[in-house]
Amino acid sequence: MSTVVDVEGAVGAMRERHRAAAADVPYTDVRTLRIGRDEVTSTGPASPVIDPATGEQWGSVPEATADEVDSAVRAARAAFPAWAALAPTARADALRRMADAIERRAEPLALTNTLENGSPIAETSGAAGNAASILRVFAGMAGFLEEPDIRPFPGGANETLVARDPIGVCALIAPWNFPINLVAIKLAPALLAGCAVVIKPASPTPLSVRFLLDAADEAGIPPGVINLVTGGAATGDALVRHPDVDKVAFTGSTPVGRKIAAACGELLRPVTLELGGKSAAIVLPDADLDAMSAVLLRSCIRNTGQTCYISTRLIATPERYDDLVEMVTGVVGGAVLGDPLDPATVFGPVATAAQRDGVRSLIRAGVAEGARVTVGGDVAPPLPGGSFVAPTVFADVRPDMRIAQEEIFGPVVTILRAADVDDAVAVANSTRFGLGGIVFGADEEAALRVARRVDTGSIGINFFASNHHAPFGGRHDSGLGLEYGIEGLSAYLTPQSVHRAIRRGP
Hints:
By secondary structure, the protein is of the alpha/beta class. The strands form 6 sheets. The chain has a 7-stranded mixed sheet, with helices on both faces. The mean pLDDT is 95.
């Protein structure tokens, strides 16, 4: 069992700490939407914002109506031409100013994020800096937009100028696990490209995104370029299907992504989907398990297991299997589970009560199918009242088990046995997902050869981290399209080929 912070009186102390934190943040009960240059009072019903650590309501936001979604899209459309007409370097300068303004809001942003989704403060404290980094990286791509792209005809008699235009008004729909960064990876390229946007955050995490809007205001980004609506599925559907939206970018679950893809297909609307994952970490016979233990929590169970790309399936050959089980059990079992506002906490609650119930149901399924719990399991919540799940390690997992096939999105890792390295690759490729992955091995060239055989969009050697300069995206049920890098910027551009004769002579 993981260590629980302040077992004696922990619940009462945690509640007081969270109430005090909620009193310190600027956004709690909000009745407005950001539309154009105004905070518009919504006519929709209020939706509660629940602290997953305590189960208590601490804020609220409105459920935007279809008419309010329409107003937000129309505001974006009105602001689009002037923003698109600016030079890319001018937009890049605005992104850099916005990055600076976000970093100045790091502390209240982190507190709000933790109160919304229960992510440990040690995790959310980096959200502002990461978002600022994303903005600065994309600002550095302004030259790509300004440099002429001229391509010769076969034979050389004529040439084509390939111009890059902003795609238009974009709907940016973000999930609850990383509500700031997963907006930023859409917002930064959209703004640099010259697009105007309407953001819809996930229902559990609608307040922290307002710090991005405040930073945009401080940076001088014109009113209407960034608009905000809050609400659930009905609000999202109205936004996705709005006739004046030119592109949709969504991060979230695969089932919801399928619905959005179907709607965009019907409308012939470009869409970027970053969806679920069930990534694998292949542990080669020469892997350094001590070194692996230092990156295990971040690479395989980050953010209380609520990270799309983490490698929750660990696959080892027989000669390393027992040592791996012992190491993983010790690391996960020794990590602090408790109040997410405590900097020492590694595992907080999962984001919602429904998510908690789903995770515990899959833990029960793993036991029923014969997997062996080495730590955690379907035990009573360690801190009553919140959405806590005991961090859990399963050994003796077969590839066909539900816990080896379905995205659990909670603090659960599974350890599978492979006959040899070839079998480990086959097991890694035995799910319908393809988002992340890791190969652990002392011989990095050999590990690279194994990594290139794994059917996934991104993979690391002895660690995993996203690089803002490099494309990130999923294969198969993990999504469509790419984020980050020039590829992520290109998703917000539409090219025009201008064919022209080459002038010769004076």
